[in-house]
Amino acid sequence: MFKLSEIKELMKLMDQTSLQELEIENEGTRLLIRKPNKTESVVVTSAPLQQTYAPVNPQTAAPALSVQASVPVGSNVDEQKESDSGLHKIVSPMVGTFYEAASPGSAPFVSKGSKVSDKTAVCIIEAMKLMNEIEAEIKGEIVEVLVQNGQLVEYGQPLFLVKPE
Questions:
Q1: Phi, psi of 81 (to 5 degrees)
Q2: How many CB atoms are closer than 10 A to CB 62?
Q3: More confident residue, 42 or 22
């Protein structure tokens, strides 16, 4: 069983990262914390047909437990807008830290308006102390940089929007 203090700490950590979901199993109990939006997290226990939800106020991080049948899942309006516009997303191939330049004092690999080819390095993702150079894999123009330097990124998270040529 998870202690309330442990759950609160995990919720605080989730709020500070770009992670949208965290699932942990411990001694037959499953804990699932999901961020469909910035004001709600979810706690699910392993009891048969019983789910406990904990909406969280980000200012206090004090959960108010209640039993409900389902959780509304919010849709990301930005993702829908991007798919409608015909732009290509360059996504993170791994979990790690996003770096826009090869070193702290260097110029960014690319910025808004930069022209890229399929072999152009667009960023570095640091994972487990390894620096992984990410290539554009498409020819076009960078329309938007979706993450900030030093930000933690998830597998499959969009990093850049590219207008294909």
A1: -65, -40
A2: 11
A3: 22
